[in-house]
Amino acid sequence: MGKEPQDFLPELPGQDGPQQGPSWANPRWPLTGDAPDLDAAMDPTEMAALVKEASAKAGKPTDTKSVEAACRDSIQAMLLIRLYRVRGHLAADLDPLGLANREVPEDLTLEWHGLAGQEDKEVFVGGVFGFEWVKVGELLDVLRNTYCGHVGLEYMHIADTEERRFLQDQFESPEETIQFTPEGKQAILQAVIRGEEYEKYLAKKYVGTKRFGLDGGEAMIPALEAVIKYGGSSGVREIIYGMAHRGRLNVLANVMAKPYRVIFHEFSGGSANPDDVGGSGDVKYHLGTSTDREFDGIKVHMSLVPNPSHLEAVNPVVLGKTRAQQAMHDDLSAHEKVLPVLIHGDAAFAGQGVVWECFGLSGVRGYSTGGCIHFVINNQIGFTTSPQFARSSPYPSDVAKGVQAPILHVNGDNPEAVTFACKLAVEYRQTFKRDIVIDMWCYRRFGHNEGDEPSFTQPLMYKEIRQHPRVSELYSDRLRDEGVIEEGTTPQMRQDFISHLDEEFEKAKGYKPNEVDWFAGRWSGLHKPADPETARRNTETAIGKKLFDSLGRTLTTVPDDLTIHKTLGRVLDAKREMFKTGTGFDWATAEALAFGSLVTEGFGVRLSGQDSGRGTFSQRHAIWVDQTDEGKYIPLATLPHGKFEVYDSTLSEFGVLGFEYGFALADPKTLVMWEAQFGDFANGAQIMIDQFIASGEVKWMRANGLVMLLPHGYEGQGPEHSSARLERFLQLCANDNIQVLNITSPANYFHVLRRQMLRPFRKPMVIMTPKSLLRHPSAKSDAELFMGDSHFMRILSDKAEIADKKVRRLVLCSGKVAYDLMEKRDEEKIDDVSIVRIEQLYPFPGEPLAVRLKRMTNLEEVVWCQEEPHNNGAWFFVQNRIEDALTAAGHEGMRPCYAGREEAASPATGFAARHKAQQDALVSVALGLSERGATNAKRKSRANKS
What we know:
alpha/beta, Helix Hairpins, Rossmann fold, eight-stranded mixed β-sheet, about 15% strand, oxoglutarate dehydrogenase (succinyl-transferring) activity, thiamine pyrophosphate
């Protein structure tokens, strides 16, 4: 078997075979090539020889004094060139309003370089800009035209020489400057007019309605079309977009080709989906779409991912979806066919931490998408906040320098420049498979939304905006001056487009959506469950003995050339004993059996988290590390048919969880799991949980099967290592949106993971996974529970054989506390108290619980016991549901009592002694051993009845 499974770890571009060098070294950094040394002058001796040779060829003096003088001038000229390459963007003409103070830096002047008054002097530059010798004044003009025009390029922070030279050549070569054919210029003008007139049409027809218009940034429309055109010609077959509000409706209509009539229908209050589909729907500027566009005979599929108002939250979702699509296109090595494009606002790009989290993922194994094109709509304002109060950096795009992404700053009043920037961005991304940023400086003609009055806070800016001509007017004047269009061309373009909008407006009155596309493509064969109860029955999740034994061999066989850690050796010895005796299967082994069986059946399995390979608690050992050379072996990756992936993620919750949600959004045939190091840390991704996982299906008709694994349980580890905030997930439960479980049995965990993939529908699943139960002697399962007719159990009885008719007191609970209760009950030799575990909290198993309660004919008390404080945990969620089950079972008037910790602002104590005292007390109260606790429980029961 050897170490071939190393190959199942997707490599970074250009990285072949196992990692070389120390284990802590990232093979991607440093990039090849030398970083620019901005302070070092060229070697005078070498320069003198070049100047002397060039002087002789040009018929110039070659005596020592003349060569020395020419050499000094040449070095000054080369430093001038270098500084323009590094800092020329600081003097670029970027602000359409002319309000930005962008004086030419002193070191970009001839005076600073000692060349003032020498504009007519010829200097040797050795082929730069195509010049061997050039006059100083001409060189300065070329430098300013190249680096200080309507496009400013930041690229000299990039370490890789090849990348710098590529951008330099593209920018400095005459044939690569901003040039378009007359037909191309007319197409750009037409696209700008479509963008402008569409916004004006919406404003006229739907007065006062929010649309977050693109007004002032319309140059983005032809630029995004250039991404499709040039992307298609360079191998792109699918583009996945993510963006916020501003300009979204314009992009949907004029780039994504969503029919105008559909958007007009939605503006008029109509639904985006058929009436029988249901769902809450969402506002127009949150919705997505998918379509095909064709340029030059090449068809490109495009999708715009729906998103909430939370700025930049959609970014990791787009990247995760892109990664999944690349896997399905067999494009994970070349990264050529599927391209992510993210459209940002300037304030959000600088202000939202998830932007950096996504940049941080860009070159990481398992998360790389081969580069993303970032397009910043730089309004030069964020809602009402001016840039100087919105960030500490000169540009909103400066965060991108952290991954050495090149940045193209461009004036939004020049649509040709913006389109050129997108063309260059596509070429760079397709060549180097790295992120690149376009920072389009524009303005927001109206307020944050169309009902906002921006002059309250920016009166001078909006005075200038009110008198500033529109993009199409400026561009039309330019094209007329160039002879590209005639006098009446632009008005005719406007009228033709408005007539088309009028036709679409009329058709919108009779428009009715007739389908929703959420179960198309790779989702074919899946559907929405008929109802939350019966649709979850009869899923056969057990496996056969032959597969069971085969997986056992895979999980316990060490290749001959692999030297494993001695402790791992003992772990594997214990596993071999499990498979030999058929008893004592622990949590990690059950999990590996679930993963392996799904892979063998052709499903993919993808697990990511901050320590997922080994497991936070050293329980999983999905990756075996050779102790001699740190080579990696993944047993489950050797299985045929499907694909098993496990990744130790970046130290991110928001970004990585969003990435995995996006992956699961695209690929329902892969069990996608995100694991928190401790369940408490999930709150770092709360936006993703609230806005996507819990509500994405009902808002946007997008199913998702993501699994969240959240270690949860009170073991005296303090406030941040105890609670995964179960109550928050339960509060989000409604409309059969998610599944929430707190599982206590390894076999039950095995079955629920398999059930997640074997059912004909997908729902996000949140599992409170254990910590101490990973090795608890009672939390074990026998082999027979994985085979035969075994299946997932929504409720589990305790191990004591107490007849239902004998039960006087029933303790219901969920999670680890069940074992504390059973241990204490057995220790006290109590024979009339039964303990039942609710393994699935939502959808709540009311029917099987009622069946069980009906058999308890002598039942007097029902207690809900939890480890969490009274204001946390499941109590407020389950109490009415338990009462309903009691009523259905014939126990009218009986209500559950509470046993658990008192209310607390902190989820857990940080003192071991206090933790133990609290735990002992709540267990005693639940079992009726505490007189005070029993009295309190009865008092609460009477109060409930009254």
